[in-house]
Amino acid sequence: MSEKPPGAEKKIAAGIFGILLGSFGIHKFYLGYTKEGIIQLVVSVLTCGIGGIIGFIEGIIYLTKSDEDFVKTYITGKRGWF
Questions:
Q1: Which of 23, 33, 46, 55 makes an SS bond possible with 28, Cβ 3.0 to 4.6 Å?
Q2: Full-prediction pTM beyond 0.90?
Q3: What does the alpha-carbon distance between residue 16 and residue 81 come to, in Å, rounded to a whole number?
């Protein structure tokens, strides 16, 4: 069994946060994307929560990526959106 890359342990929590609390940007804050988290929160407030669909979609994307892809894209690559 191969060992998970450093940072892969954040994938499940970030995915669940995105699905359940995506409109608050919690998944962004958890991954260290403070600016993106604030933007997500403001968009959700301005759209009366409809902007929360972005967090829901991102949560699903996080959970469907392999551990290696997740780390490469969001931990190492610091990709803030999708």
A1: 33
A2: no
A3: 16
Tell me the pLDDT of the chain (82 aa) as tens digits: 568 888 899 999 999 999 999 999 999 999 999 999 999 999 999 999 898 899 999 999 999 999 999 999 999 998 887 7
Query: Burial letters for 37-62: b for 16+ Cβ neighbours within 10 Å, e otherwise?
Result: bebbbebbeeeeeebbebbbebbeeb
CA distance 22 to 39: 12
The alpha carbons of the chain give a radius of gyration, in whole angstroms, of 12
Burial of 26 (0-12, 13-18, 19+ CB in 10 A): buried
E strands, 13-72, in order: none
